[in-house]
Amino acid sequence: MSVLVSGATGFIAQHIVEALLNENYKVIGTARSQEKGDNLKKQFNNNPNLIMEVVSDISNVNAFDHVLEKHAKDIKVVLHTASPFHFNTTEYEKDLLIPARNGTLGILEAIKKYASQTVERVVITSSFAAVYDVEAPPSKDLVYTEKNWNPATWETAQKNAVMAYCGSKKIAEKTAWDFLEKNKNVVKFQLSTVNPVFVFGPQLASSSVGDTLNTSCELINAVLKSKPSDVLATSIAGEFIDVRDVAKAHLAAFQRENTVGKRLVMSNGPFSSQTICNVIHKDFPQYDGKIAPVAKDTDVDNGNVSFVLDNSATKKLLGWEFISLQKSVDDTVAQIAQVKN
Ligand code: NDP
């Protein structure tokens, strides 16, 4: 039996692939080009349990057909992680909304066409962005749980890149739940989603560390790029979760019965740029005088939160303690420091 991982070259997906290989699963990964697929295989020492297929653009709803057709008998589990995560566009439909929605629809339609009775579990990598209402006025009484949905529509999502990304994740996730409802008598699979907040932590391979990191880890890298004269934001920038917990949650999302039909909202609490900076000063004295200074008493101020995220249901379901902000920042920074030296 094999696990199909779409977007296997991504920051989160590489950790998922490693976790799967460590548990002796056979993995079929997709990458946008042969070269990217070959590089990933090399990174895993050409482990024979990892095979790669090319899916060049998930905007095409037929993009996954050849993969499901070829491997229909083997694939029991599908983990759909591929989706654009960046804010560098003004072409919101083309670059964010269409690939997110069509990627999700396309992989599910391909399962229906070629593997309706063999695929048993599907996990969609959604996001807290599908839960969080970007335009809601900040309030400590605004409580999000696994039950909330961002109100974005295809049209309202096109105001700016942040709204387009959040809209893309909401629309893609909704597409999956609606597909299952419509096709529950045709397909065999059960669905779960993993909805992380900002994901921090080391890249699986140091070779992925460049001047700019993936969108979420760049928030830590940006603190390392700050100047001693900079004053960093002490207000909460969002919530964080470590990539190793996100990878583990993808496995739990298909291995366990208690995760069927669930949205797993992955967060281990809020952070600000200054909180990250303080952790760096505490654990990496070599940055003293080189980046923005440490600030006193700047730990996240719960009096000033713009929302509350209550993911106690997910924590209870999963049952392990998530990696702390300090460890997540430490491991991210240690890897960057090692590559840059
Ligand atoms: P990455 O950018 O590292 O990974 C995204 C993956 O999707 C890459 O493999 C990328 O390929 C692939 N991809 C993007 N667009 C297309 C396309 N049009 N056609 C084919 N493949 C495509 O980001 P992350 O690992 O951070 O994100 C992975 C998933 O997790 C995404 O669904 C994202 O929305 C979600 N997520 C991420 C969070 C975070 O903080 N990192 C938080 C919440 C959710 P390539 O690199 O070759 O372009």
Automatic annotation (TrEMBL):
It comes from the Eukaryota. The gene is TBLA0D00750. CDD domains: AR_SDR_e. Belongs to the NAD(P)-dependent epimerase/dehydratase family. Dihydroflavonol-4-reductase subfamily. GO terms for molecular function: oxidoreductase activity, acting on the CH-OH group of donors, NAD or NADP as acceptor. This is NAD-dependent epimerase/dehydratase domain-containing protein. Keywords: Oxidoreductase. InterPro entries: Epimerase_deHydtase, NAD(P)-bd_dom_sf, NAD(P)_dehydrat-like.
